[in-house]
């Protein structure tokens, strides 16, 4: 579904500029949930901007379903870390979610059905007429996720989407996301700096070092469906967590 080959991104000249992405290569299969784990400043967000077509790569190749990325792909959606800035405060929840669908070529009726379905999936079917500033942080991020889902993407990129919410809300959003992933059968690339979150969500975890280069690939064989108490009490969860912590430190 997604293939990255020798991706490199330099801000400025090749000789004296800032290297954000070094030599990055990986493949994500159809309907796979892959987490990208790395410390702050290692180039995770720059990588996502290149994958989404929002920033041009300096060199290398990115393919989505076999087609080169030279701009935002039609079948790809992006959930940003800062949900409060990605939502339009003068639009209702319903209009925020339906806004991008005009560029998808949906009819008004198709857009209405897709919007209602996405808001129902994130548990906000009863808040359609509210404005973003009337919602909690967790609810605002649900709106951002619903907007991406309504677009009906094949690939969903997520940039630390739960980093700004409290621990309980974060756990709830993680479980919500797993339910959405199964319901929509979408391929997810999820960037985080939280080891527990990566192990809990993913089929596979990639560890990056700066400038964004893969150092470790860990397969997560934990049984699904997962839950916050049972899954995190498994010995294999602790082993994977320790392995990834060691990879990050070294």
UniProtKB/TrEMBL annotation:
Tree of life domain: Bacteria
Record's keyword terms, sorted: ATP-binding, Nucleotide-binding, Transport
PROSITE patterns: ABC_TRANSPORTER_1, ABC_TRANSPORTER_2
UniProt-recorded Gene Ontology molecular function terms: ATP binding; ATP hydrolysis activity
Pfam family for this entry, one: ABC_tran
Ranges where the ABC transporter domain occurs: 2-235
InterPro entries per record: AAA+_ATPase, ABC_transporter-like_ATP-bd, ABC_transporter-like_CS, ABC_transporter_ATP-bind, P-loop_NTPase
Protein name (database record): NitT/TauT family transport system ATP-binding protein
Organism: Blastococcus saxobsidens
Lineage summary: Bacteria, Bacillati, Actinomycetota, Actinomycetes, Geodermatophilales
